[in-house]
Amino acid sequence: MVRALGAGRLAAVHDQITNCCRCERLRTYCTRIATEKKAAHRNDAYWGKPVPGFGDPNARVLVLGLAPAAHGANRTGRVFTGDGSGDFLMRAMHAAGFANIPTSRRVDDGLRLNDAFIVAAVRCAPPGNKPLPEEIAACHPHLVAEAAALEKMQVIVALGKIGFDAAWRLLAARGIVIRPRPRFGHAVIARTLGPTVIGSFHPSRQNTNTGKLTAPMLDDVFQLAARLLAD
To answer: pLDDT, tens digit, for every residue of 22-32?
Structure first.
């Protein structure tokens, strides 16, 4: 019954997200990308709409990223799906027991998350992967609404500085404020009166290809999240 109630609340929130038109620049960009497509995906039907979260309605771990990739989630319609970042993330989540398979390729690939739910601070793919501050702010109510439906949330894994900042805005909306705010860093842990926040470098190609974020480093973050749940 709890899972059914949580799933029902999320479905209503997700309907609001996919029909959002608050940011004209982002909607124009996503629509153009979905029409022009990438040569490698020219036969694919692009999603091209705002991307809701994905995962276990009873999740205790919220994974908070940046935004859909233009030819990743903007194409597939599922966050962190269809690009290298998704596979890099899912390998670590699978190793820690939060995912049933170590890849995230398509919406019909059989991926299921266990005790984890993945969202993004911005739900539309931004040009250059750089959303404007006002676009981040416009998307914030979607994050608040989704998180409110995850009644068992205990840990937030924040991917990247934008995800980390979004986590603190989410907690502030719940009346949880820490001053001074913890500085972003990889594997930084901040305990609060609510969910514990763990910072992580984002699994973008820019970070993984340069070695700023390695597979063992991301493993450490999700193993840490698992240990926090076990305490």
So the answer is: 999 999 999 99
pTM for the structure as a whole: 0.95
Q: Annotate 76-116 with DSSP letters as a single string.
A: HSSTT-SSHHHHHHHHHHHHTTSBSSS----TTS---BSSE
In terms of residues, how long is the chain? 231
CA dist 202 → 2, 5, 50 (Å): 32, 31, 20
Question: Under CATH, which architecture does the 2-230 domain have?
Answer: 3-Layer(aba) Sandwich (3.40)
Q: Mean per-residue pLDDT for 122-129?
A: 96
- Token digits of residue 146: 């989704």
Answer for the pair 58, 6: CB distance below 8 angstroms, yes or no. yes
Please state, as a whole number, how many other Cβ atoms lie within 10 Å of the Cβ of residue 182.
Answer: 15
pLDDT in tens, 173-186: 999 999 899 999 99
- In order, the DSSP letters of 167-228 are HHHHHHHTT---SSPPPP-TT-EE--SS-EEEEE----HHHHHHTSS-HHHHHHHHHHHHHH
Q: What is the DSSP letter of 37?
A: -
Q: Give me the residue spans of the domains in the chain.
A: 2-230
